[in-house]
Amino acid sequence: MKIFVDTAKLNEIKEACSWGIVDGVTTNPSLIKKAVDAEKLQGKNVNMTDYIKEILITVGEGKPVSLEVISLTSKEMIREGMLLYEKFNPVAQNVAIKIPINTSINNSLLGNYEGLKAIKKLSGQGIPINCTLIMTPEQALLAAKAGASYASPFCGRVDDYIRKKLGISFSKGDYFDSELIERIADDNFEEHLEDYFSGEIDAIYQDKRIKEAANLGKDNGIESGVDLVRSIVTIYLNYGIKTEIIAASMRNARQVREIAEAGAHIATIPFAVIEEMIQHPKTREGIERFSADVVPEYRELFKKN
């Protein structure tokens, strides 16, 4: 699985690249603004164009950097996407354009298909598209059909959505234990079934309480962000779809591990979560013991003659 860094901070990008594990970077206007503002607070004179170019050069040729459009209509997204690509791709030949799957606001039908139109047009021009804000397997299928090079399901936000519907309190970095929710749902379901005889199929099927119990902790059948990735992987494999899945909105190291097990092609990960991935208390304990056990005779082997 490839690892992208989900940041626009140059110091984080440079540090992560030095580890030899970075295959690309994802940004958005908010991340870039925060990064540039932080530089200005340090008294640096930062030009937005130059800053983005430095990100591209730092990441390097062949390692995609996603830059996002800001408009909501296909016409404007196409214009902005072409502008970004023509302006920045020559720097290191590594620009991908982020297009939202759906730009509808307040349940309006007007924006439902603008993203697809923009993806179709831009991908037809040979521009790599990262389709973002995907929350369902259905959206991922449509993004691939429209020609997206990458589909980005937002795993952490799906977990948040399910937890909020259940009334579960959580912090952003908390792991969402969907298996625990499934066990609770099964017990709840069995409890409601006790009110019926096995032959009352129609009554059981129509019972609102049983339907709610059966779907507890699910978003239209999806149990978690990891389950969302797993479903998209299955669909893409079924039809030989070449669109790469970028698991986005990663919240913790365990979630990264699980989307890797589910078959995501790429995970785009915040810097702090990558730092979490490398750590374990027994590893720390082991290196402390190894260091303490080095005898003087062995240490002498590493001194210059």
Topology (elements, then pairings):
Blueprint lengths: L1 E5 L3 H9 L5 E3 L2 H13 L6 H12 L5 E4 L5 H19 L2 E6 L13 H11 L4 E6 L2 H10 L3 E4 L1 H12 L11 H16 L7 H6 L1 H7 L10 H15 L4 E4 L5 H10 L3 E4 L1 H7 L3 H12 L3 H5 L5
Parallel strand pairs: 1-2, 1-8, 2-3, 3-4, 4-5, 5-6, 6-7, 7-8
Number of domains: 2
Radius of gyration, whole Å = 23 Å
CATH topology of the largest domain: TIM Barrel
Please work out how many helical segments DSSP would assign.
15
Spans of at least 5 consecutive residues whose pLDDT stays below 50 are none
Strand order of the largest sheet: 1-2-3-4-5-6-7-8
What is the ordering of alpha helices and beta strands?
EHEHHEHEHEHEHHHHHEHEHHH
The CATH architecture of the largest domain is Alpha-Beta Barrel
The major β-sheet equals:
8 strands, parallel, barrel
The percent of residues in helical segments reads: 40-55%
CATH top level assignment of the largest domain: Alpha Beta
Oligomer classification: single chain
Class computed from helices, strands and strand pairing: alpha/beta
User: Got a strand count?
Assistant: 8
Which percent band covers the strand fraction? 5-15%
Principal-axis shape equals globular
The rounded distance between the terminal residues' Cα atoms is 44 Å
Fourth CATH level, the homologous superfamily of the largest domain: Aldolase class I
What is the arithmetic mean of pLDDT?
A: 94
